[in-house]
Amino acid sequence: MKLLPPPNPNTTSFHYHGGGAANNINQLDHHCCPVKKNKVMPLLQHFFSSPSILPCKKNTNKNQNFIIKWAPRMDSITTIIARPTSDAAADLLLLRHHYRKNQRLAAQKEKLIVIMGATGAGKTKLSIELAKRFNGEIINSDKMQVYKGLDITTNKAPINERGNINHHLLGDFDPELGELTRSDFRRLTWSKVKEIESRNKVPFLVGGSTSFVHASLTDRFNPATNVFDRSNSSNSVSSELRYDCCFLWVDVSFNVLCEYLRKRVDEMMDSGMVEELAEYYASGSLSRHPGLRNAIGVPEFYDYFNSKGYDSVDEGTLYEDAVNDIKDNTCRLAKRQIEKILRLKTAGGWGLQRLDATSSFRKVLTSYENEKEDWREIWTRQVVEPSFKTVKKFLEEE
Predict the structure, then answer these.
(1) Are residues 23 and 152 in the same domain?
(2) 298 and 182 together in one domain
(3) pLDDT for 3-33, tens place per residue?
(4) Which residues are CB-contacts of 24 (< 8 A; sequence separation ≥ 6)?
């Protein structure tokens, strides 16, 4: 047996002499091959015993030479190339075709629907509609919504608006246990995907915290590296993912989105956000919550709540300043999120399907109350229906 030199540090190539018969696999010479037997053998058995390649097995020569490329970091065989010693070349090409078709099964990558977008772009609404249609469950990837508390301030979807869909990592984490890191979220996401898959449900990862999304999806993650720091050219975005992902990016023209976000802040104030923050400050939780205290709304109201009771302080001005700061900071957050999404798409080559929801948002901002149905029709036509077709096709693929 002749061992081929590895084409790169992550791949090992070697000859296997003996053709497609499963009982001849043991002829692999492990003494000259640096790949561990307990990893290679099960995958070879899976390949050569697969029913999908049985039709072309009968024409494979038992003295066939194969070149097998093995990727140790992925624990999978990446390519099997046959070198014909007879006229069975066509059958051997078919053999390669069937192998590549079954490659995903050998790698055992879970399918995952990933819905991204800036804050307020409609990710939650779309995810619930799709989860209903595709028997799905939703994993939250908003770094502030993972914590218990401040439901209005962090804009968690109320239970009665979740469409009876199971939501995970949404208000599940006790903020007094510390700040949830990207590594923590990566571990939790992996566990939740496995859990959802075990129930034969479709997992959806939904949220605007792009750093959490990147940490949970990339195949090799380095917590010491910030891939969104463009000042460091060595911080590259990997295109290798640990799941088989379908990416949906809900996008809204920034000027339209920012106008909508300002309006949404006013609605949050009317829904009891100030009272929620007053209770939070009164409880003394600020010093005990290193993560949740960074939610937009908490630091902006610091001066207002710490100055109450002093006659010399114009509370009305402090209140207006806090609300305006929340609006400005929310728009800044949306801009940063869009920039990070674009980096994943361009630098990382992530296949994000952009869904332009601008028309429906513009309709929301310009419609009277009795015209609200119009924006829903636009939303369905321009966002929901294209998403449905994409997800359906993705789930039907092998």
Answers:
(1) no
(2) yes
(3) 333 344 344 443 344 444 333 334 333 333 3
(4) 18, 62
